[in-house]
Amino acid sequence: MQKEIKDLEQQARQLETTTEERNHLFDKARQYGERFLNSLSEKPAYVDEQSMGKGVYDLPFDEKPKDFDKLLDLLHSEVDTPGLNPASGKHAGYIPGGGIYPSAIADYLAAVTNRYTGVFFSSPGAVRIENMCIRWMNDLVGYPEGAAGNLTSGGSIANLIALVVARDNSGIKAKDFNRAVIYTTRQVHHCVVKAIKFSGLQEATLRTIPMDDRFCMKADALEKQIKADKKEGLIPLTIFASAGTTDLGAVDPLDEIGAIAERHDLWFHVDAAYGGFFLLTDHGKEVMKGIEKSDSATIDPHKGLFLPYGSGALLVKDGEKLYDSQHMSANYLQDTYKATQEASPADLSPELSKHFRGLRMWLPLQLFGIQPFRAALEEKLLLTRYFYDEIQEIDGIEVGPEPELSVAFFRYVPESGSANTFNKKLVNEIHRDGRVFLSSTHIDGTVYLRLAVLNFRTHLEDVDLILSVLKEKIQQLT
Ligand SMILES: Cc1ncc(COP(=O)(O)O)c(C=O)c1O
C-alpha cells in the first residue's frame, strides 16, 4: 500500500508549483493584465461578434496539461473580446461595474493564502478586516453601534437575506404568509421579486405603491395602503424602498417612509445597491436623508465603490436580529465557538466557507484613502448633469426628469413614425458600432435610452464621445 501511496503522491505533487513555475505563471498573467489595461482606451465598449465566445469549447478538459500561453490566447479572443467590456470607461449602460486594480491584487493574495473567513476562530485578522468594512459602511449609512452585516456576492443576495431577516423578525408563521404584504414600487429591482419567491413568501401580496412624476414612491399613498391592508386583516410585513433605482436612478422619500415604518411597526429595507456609496458626497447625503431610519440596507461595493464584480453587502441596524435569523451551530465546529471577541461572518449570513471578500475592499480603501472615491462619485454626478444638459441641445430629444444620481434617460422623437421603433433601432446601432455602450428600457410602454455613469474610468472625454456617437447615429437614422 505504501508504494501505491507514494506513486499517487508523485502524481498529486504536480498540483504544487515551484517558485520558477509560479514566477512564470505570474509574469505571464501580469503581462496579460498590463496589455489589457494599456489598450483599454482604444478598445470598444461593446463587441457584437457572431461567434460569441464559442471557441471556449475548442479546448475541452482532458487528462493532459495545457500550455498557459495557449490558454491566455483563448481568454483574449473568446472571453475578453466578445460582448460588453465593463472595464471600459465608455460603458454607460445598465449599472456599470468598475474593477480597481488593488482589488485584483487583494484577490490574488486572498487566494494564495486562502484564509478561512467563515469563522473568527480560524482567521481572526481576516474576519476583523471584514468586520471593519461592514462597520465603515454601517457608519456611512448612519447606523448605531450594534449594527451588523455581511459581505455578499452582490445586491441580489443582500436583498434576499434582508427579506429573510424581516420575515424572521416579524415572527409570522408560514400559515399566514398569504396574508403578508410587502410594499415597494414598480421600479424596485427585479431581484426583490425573486427574493420573495426564494424566501417562501410567493403567496404574500406585493403592493406596488404609486410613484410621483420623478418615479419616487408616494409616501402618503403608502401609508393609506398600509392602513387599508390592516383594516382588511392583512399583515403588513416590510417596505422595500430604493435609494437609486436601476432603471432611472430615483430615490424614494426615505425620511417620510422611515417615519411611516416606525408608526406602523414595519421592517424598513432600503435597496441602496446602486446609490448607496453616493452617501460619500454631500448631494448623496441630502437625497438619501432618512436612510438611517431603515432597519436594513443593501449597498454594493462592486457598483459605487468601483470594486470588481462579486462584492455586495447587507447592513442591519440591529445586529442581533441578523444573528437570530442567520445563526446555526454544528457539532463539528464546536472548537471554533470559544473565540468570541468578534462576530463570525457565518453567524450573520447563509454562507459558511466563502471567499475572503473583505480584502478586495480593505486594500484599495487603505492604499488610496477615501478621498479619491468621493471625488470620483462627485465627478459621476456632475458628468450625468452635464450629459443631461447637452443631450437636450439635440433637436428631437426628449428627456426624463433631472437626474437624482448618475442615471439619465431620454429618447428621440422622430417627426414621423413610431418613436419606440426608432429608439430600439438607435440602441441597436449603438451596440453594433460598439465605441460606446448605452442600454435601453421601457416605461409604461415607451422605449427610452439610459445613460448610467458609474465606471471609475468614465470622464468628460467619454461622455463627449457618447454625445457625438448619439448625434451621429440619430443623423444616420433620420
Ligand atoms: C438597485 C439594485 N438592486 C439590486 C441589484 C442587483 O445587484 P447584483 O447584480 O449585484 O446582484 C441591482 C443591480 O444592478 C440594482 O441596481
List the helices and strands and how they pair.
Elements lengths: L1 H11 L6 H20 L7 E2 L20 H12 L3 E2 L16 H13 L10 H18 L6 E5 L2 H16 L9 E5 L5 H9 L6 E4 L10 H13 L3 E8 L11 H11 L2 E6 L9 H6 L8 E4 L1 H4 L7 E5 L2 H8 L32 H10 L2 H21 L5 E3 L7 E6 L6 H15 L5 E5 L2 E7 L7 H18 L1
Structural summary, described in words:
- By secondary structure, this protein is an alpha/beta fold.
- The chain folds into two domains: 108-368, Aspartate Aminotransferase, domain 2 (3-Layer(aba) Sandwich), CATH 3.40.640; 371-477, Aspartate Aminotransferase, domain 1 (Alpha-Beta Complex), CATH 3.90.1150.
- The protein has helices at 2-12, 19-38, 68-79, 101-113, 124-141, 155-170, 190-198, 219-231, 254-264, 282-287, 301-304, 319-326, 359-368, 371-391, 419-433, 460-477; strands spanning 46-47, 83-84, 148-152, 180-184, 205-208, 235-242, 267-272, 296-299, 312-316, 397-399, 407-412, 439-443, 446-452.
- It has a seven-stranded mixed β-sheet with strand order 3-9-8-7-6-4-5, with helices on both faces. A four-stranded antiparallel β-sheet has the order 10-11-13-12. It has a two-stranded antiparallel ribbon with strand order 1-2.
- Helix 9 (254-264) links the parallel strand 6 (235-242) and strand 7.
- The protein is globular, with a radius of gyration of 25 Å.
- The model has no long low-confidence stretch (mean pLDDT 97).
- The chain binds pyridoxal-5'-phosphate (PLP).
- Pyridoxal-5'-phosphate binds at residues 95, 154-156, 159, 189, 191, 242, 246, 271, 273-274, 300, 312.
- Pyridoxal-5'-phosphate is lined by residues 95, 154-156, 159, 189, 191, 242, 246, 271, 273-274, 300, 312.
